[in-house]
Amino acid sequence: MSAIATLTRWAARPGQDTQASDLLRDALPLVMLESGTLAWLALRYDASSFGTFACFPSLAGRQAHLGGAAHDLLKDKAPVVFDGPRRVVDLDVIAEKLPPDALFGPVTLGLQLEFEIRRERELDVRQLLGDAGAAIQREEGTVAWFALRVDSDRHGSLAVFPDQAARFRHLTGRLPADLATHALKLLHGLPDVEMPQVLAAKLR
């Protein structure tokens, strides 16, 4: 079970989008060697916005990743293809779904939600995410899913899928329905939604 995660975002330099995609894909074989990295995703949000998402069982796992070859590769090559400093957000993992083993099918698309919560309802939001997670475990086509705490004001989720049909089933499933039902009571407004392309994935 993952306990913590890190989301890193970059903006590609003009004309460097293909090189940015290739760089993130090149990091995957190195990440596969990291026993303390339980999940890792390389993501493309739009023509110039990229990211990585990584989950760990402990701070020791995250520190090992930060001291590993994949992180060194990205750190060394990032100034060539990415514009400006990266943006790093450390997260707590509330609940997750992972495939039963590392032999999962193709993963091509993601869905990332972030929502501002009413601070006094944080325990209720965590309960909602946990309850939705039980249904998502049975959700066909959702290869992996993570419920995330950004801070006391913001929570979110990240899910990945093999195709558009599976992503649509998730969008019309338990978690979006629960968020819509309880939005006025638990949230400040509607969730922010991003639909990245998945460039590379380690899940287990």
Describe the protein in words.
- The protein is of the alpha+beta class.
- The chain folds into 2 domains: 1-85, Alpha-Beta Plaits (2-Layer Sandwich); 94-199, 2-Layer Sandwich (Alpha-Beta Plaits).
- 35% of the residues lie in helices and 33% in strands.
- The protein is built from 6 helices and 9 strands.
- A 9-stranded antiparallel sheet has the order 8-5-7-6-4-1-3-2-9.
- Helix 1 packs antiparallel against helix 3 and helix 4 (122-136) packs antiparallel against helix 6.
- It is globular and about 45 Å long.
- 36% of the residues are buried.
How would you summarize what this structure contains?
It comes from Ramlibacter ginsenosidimutans. The chain has 204 residues and is an alpha+beta fold. It is built from six helices and nine strands.
Describe the biggest sheet? 9 strands, antiparallel
What is the overall number of helices?
6
Terminal CA distance: 10 Å
**Any guess at the CATH architecture of the largest domain?**
2-Layer Sandwich
- Count all strands and give the number: 9
Topology:
Elements: E1 4-11, H1 17-31, E2 39-44, E3 49-56, H2 59-66, H3 69-81, E4 87-97, E5 109-116, H4 122-136, E6 144-151, E7 154-161, H5 164-171, H6 174-186, E8 192-194, E9 197-203
Helix pairs in contact: 1-3, 4-6
List keywords for this structure.
Antibiotic biosynthesis monooxygenase, 6 helices, Alpha-Beta Plaits, Dimeric_a/b-barrel, 2 domains, 35% helix, single chain, alpha+beta
